[in-house]
Amino acid sequence: MPARRLLILGGTAEASALAGALIDRHGEAIDLVSSFAGRVERLKPPPGRIRIGGFGGSEGLAAYLRAERIDLLVDATHPFAAQMSRNAREGAALAGVPRLQFWRRPWPRHPLDRWIEVDGIEAAAQALIHLGKRVWLTVGASELAPFAAIPDRWYLVRLIEAKTPMPLPDYTVIEARGPFQIENERTLIRHHRIDTMVSKASGGGATYAKIEAAREADLPVVMIRRPLPEPGDRAEEVSAVVDWVSARL
Ligand code: NAP
Fold first, then answer.
1. Does the CB atom of residue 84 touch ligand 1 within 6 A?
2. What CATH number does residue 54 fall under?
């Protein structure tokens, strides 16, 4: 029997773990393609084939699914990649391909967490007006500009790949790829005398240590709420995604 074709919309640690787990389980019975938006130049390629770049909206994705004779689609993009997830639902429906969304578990809010929850990057920047002066900004490289408008702030920015100069008046940038350990996060907070953190409510284990370290240091955290998941099949564990795929091979 020819191998069944699976497209994983990736760019997350869980998408890579999923690719590895599926190839371990099914070997050559599965032909796996992982897709990346192409924002990071130094990719860490997962097992299987990869493709890089957008599809051209939901219709472009549907055309790709048909042309490549994809049997199954797993949307394992970042929880904030709302556009890609919408395209995945619509494109899969247009092409008649079964789709599952991997939905990373949100972080639970601890009673000692000092979160200020906001909707969107602009609101996060505005929230800083009432908060500290030395801000650890843990958002994407394309989301920095609104913070430049807040006067008299210094920012610590951590990115997988930094493109300098950044659109911020006063900052220090660190290049690093998660997962991060709590001792590392404690040291950054102490060393840079951080008094406020900004984070997307990304969830998952790889970047949770910064949230724990902020709690220990009693820091306010401007927490950007997540977009809602798409309607349809959803799984919150990589093992559950493997089961969903395996049941359809
Ligand atoms: P997006 O806004 O949902 O996607 C915008 C467009 O990028 C899509 O319409 C699609 O273009 C293309 N695209 C996105 N993911 C793709 C994939 N896996 N394969 C092929 N094309 C893809 O998502 P985003 O721009 O990637 O990111 C939005 C948010 O998610 C940001 O807040 C970002 O910081 C966060 N994010 C974080 C991580 C992380 O690991 N920390 C990773 C990714 C994203 P077409 O319409 O042309 O198909």
1. yes
2. 3.40.50.720
Q: Find, among 118, 80, 149, the residue nearest to 222 by Cα.
A: 118
pLDDT digits (tens, 9 = 90+) for 157-200: 999 999 889 999 999 999 999 999 999 999 999 999 999 999 99
CA–CA separation, 103 and 65 (whole Å): 22
Query: How many A from CA of 1 to the centre of ligand 1?
Result: 34
Asked whether 45 lines ligand 1 (CB < 6 A), one says: no
Q: Take residue 12 and report the two structure tokens written for it.
A: 């997350």
How many separate domains does the chain show?
A: 2
From the CA of 15, give the closest atom in ligand 1: 18
Distance 183 CA to ligand 1 centre (A): 30
- Supply the pTM of this predicted model: 0.94
Q: Is residue 130 part of a domain?
A: yes
**109 belongs to a structural domain:** no
Residue in the structure block whose two tokens are 């493709």? 51
Q: Is 12's C-beta closer than 6 angstroms to any atom of ligand 1?
A: yes
CATH code of the domain containing 152: 3.40.50
| Cross-strand bridge partners of residue 115 | 221
Asked if the structure places residue 21 within a domain, the reply is: yes
